[in-house]
Specification:
19% strand
Length: 260
Amino acid sequence: MPHVSFSEVKNWHQCPFYHKLTYVDRVKLFEGNEFTAFGKAVHSTCEEIFNAERTEEFNLELFFKKHFLQELKDLPNTHKKKVDLIRAMKDQGVVLVEGVLSAVHDYFGEDVEILAVEESLMEEINDFTDAKYNFKGFIDAVFKTSDGKYHIVDWKTCGWGWDRVKRNDKMTTYQLTFYKYFYAIKHNIDPKNIETHFALLKRTAKKNHVELFRVTSGLKKTQNAIKLLTKALYNINRKKYFKNRLACGKCEFNNTKHCP
């Protein structure tokens, strides 16, 4: 069955023609850099920290550095690596991953239960009836607190942090709205018993390197998110790929052969 992810919906919302280039034509200009390598390595380390199947203690510093170096090796040969930035990122990453566990316990309490790490979602989108689609996603972590609440957490690596605009950006927070909606369906849980949170892993912050904060998704917001999802699927299913000229300024395809 065809599927759609949050990233795909976000890209469609940015520009339907951009969506066509990336998801239909499979055109790829950006192939990663030090920042994407850093983010992947930090995510892998966070996953291992809360891996319930891991039976042995592991060295956080060595684990992170090993994965960071591997991600750097996987970058295209055409990318000229910034040695000073990489050296700084090694130290910054160690500070981040060593503070994750204590930050989670400070936020949720010492008795928080780890339910899942990298939980996959592949749920049928019943709200769209023109064709069969699944929603695909991977939830970074799911915790449960003593009050019976389920907590979905998404790790976000960044520089110094997010400002108020970023924290409240509709499209940014819709990721957690979708995760909550389809996680509730998958596990037959009342959405009222599910809360969602971003965990900022702040590479250049002077303090408070790991910050968790809640993102609310009530009925109205959820309805708006699903409305956007079905609108995207309606146009994708009918191959309507118009260009959003307002998004050209930050588009990697702007003024290239793919989008002159």
